[in-house]
Each structure stands twice: as C-alpha cells, then as structure tokens.
Amino acid sequence: MIVRASLSAFHLLALAIGFGAVFARGLRLRDLLRSPEDPAALRRLLQADGLWGLAAILWIATGLTRVFGRLEKTPDFYLRNGFFWVKMSLFVLILLLELVPMATFMRWRGAKARGNAPAVGAPFSTLIALNDAEVVLIVVIPFVAALMARGAWLY
Question: How far apart are the C-alpha atoms of 86 and 106, rounded to whole Å?
Fold first, then answer.
C-alpha cells in the first residue's frame, strides 16, 4: 500500500512541480521580452525550464509505472478507458508544443555554457503562446484524469 500511495503522490507532485515551473517559465519569458539583455532574467527562465523538464521526467516515469506496473489497476483499466486516451492525447500535445521551446532553450544553454551570450532574439510571442497553451492543457489534464480514475468511460 505504501508503494502505491507513494507512486500516486509522486505523480501528483510531478504535476504540481510541472505546473508551477511552466507557469514561472511563462513569467520569465515575459521578463526576458522586456529585458532581453538581462542575464538574471535568462538564468531564472532556464531554471524554471529545468524544473519543467524534471517534472516531465517524473510525470512520465510515474505514469508508465502506474499504467504497466500492475500496482493499482491492470493495464486494461487504462488502455480500454477513453478518458485515458484523452489524457494521453493532451499529454502528447504538450510534448509537441514543447518541441520549439525545448530546442530554443537548449541552444541558449549551449551558448551560455560556451561563454557566449545566447541569441535571445527568438520569437518571444511564439514561445509565450506555446507556453500559455501548455499551462492550459496542464490544468485540463487533472479533470480528465479524475473522470478516468472514477471509472467514467468515454467510448
């Protein structure tokens, strides 16, 4: 029972960390838009992005374990539930939306590691819009998950 409860708690904790990180990343993007030459703003943005990455890894690892680990429910419970597939579709959409920010921030990290000032002249409006869409999707996922967990079925 402790393992199941811990796994569930870590899954929810990943959601909380991820939501906070992606929300903070959006704020930091707006800070950087106002002051693109501010190294502190860039550092805070990359810290928030790093937490978002950590949360995503934790979210995926705990989610896969919950689905296929047979600790709580069988894989059939998930794989036959339409709300599970809605939840997975939303998560995949987040991953797809994340491709541009992830590539951009990796370039910025690389430039910073080489001692160069990152070319932060990226399309901030695009990065902000993608980030805001991720925030909305992260808020929707728990509602879909709650329907799934309570046995609601979507055919």
Answer: 29
